[in-house]
Amino acid sequence: MDFVSRQIYPKHQQGVTLIEILVVVALLAITLAVGVPNFRGQIEKRQLIGLAEQISAHITLTRSQAITRSAPTYIKFEAGNNWRYGFSTNSDCNVNATAVTIANACIMVIEDGDADIDPGDGSVDAGDLVLNRHDVSEHTGTSLAIANFSDANSQIWFDPVRGISDSGEITVSSVAGNFQLKIKVGLLGDVRICAPDGNFSYSSANC
Asked: What DSSP designation does 177 have?
């Protein structure tokens, strides 16, 4: 007896209809429309928090160095979308200087242990000179503004005896303009971060 093999197909094959595809595409579009701006906003916030906390830490460090060294210290800012700043024992230090050997660079002398202590100009041991300069490349998509600085050189000075300082405000913003944070320096050398628009966990009081 001969057997004939036959393929048996279901009467109704299940597949994806055009309407179902369109529904999925629409849902994806809605998810992206809601999710991408939120994700971008979170990135902007993290950038600003990182920058504000970095500046605050460097201001505090500059103050502590004045007391430790028994010598005035300074932190100088250049505002704008291509911002930069530096802290130093040099007044009005050159925030554009990217090497310790450039005149009036934002440096501090930190002895490297070889007993040759540089006076601060690289003449004895340039290895003792530490460049303290930061710019927008570390926190892209941010801008910086300064206000109420007592010093005409856009810098804050710290007294070596009591740690008192010039006052000033540094505002960091996202270039997109969605968020802002302020770093406020008081005359006693105190530093705090606040949020003018209340979009962060920082206080918005007196900001």
From this structure: S
- Judge whether residue 135 has pLDDT over 90: yes
What whole-number distance in Å separates Cα of residue 97 and Cα of residue 103?
8
**Digit-coded pLDDT (tens) for 109-120:** 877 666 566 566
Q: How many CA atoms lie within 13 Å of 199's alpha carbon, on the beta-carbon side? A: 17
The pLDDT of residue 151 is: 82
Stretch 87-94: mean pLDDT, rounded?
95
CATH architecture for segment(s) 18-90+135-194: 3-Layer(bab) Sandwich (3.55)
Do residues 44 and 141 lie in contact, with contact meaning Cβ atoms separated by under 8 Å? yes
pTM, rounded to two decimals: 0.78
Running DSSP on this structure, what letter comes out for residue 165?
A: B
Give the model confidence (pLDDT) of 63-82 as tens digits: 999 999 999 999 999 999 99
**Cα–Cα distance between 174 and 12 in angstroms, integer?**
57
Q: What is the DSSP string of 71-124?
A: S-EEEEEE-BTT-EEEEESSTT-BTT--STTSTTBSEEE---SSS----SSSSS
31 Cβ partners below 8 Å, 6+ apart?
Answer: none
Dist CA 199 CA 63 (whole Å): 29
Distance CA(21)–CA(28), nearest Å, equals: 11
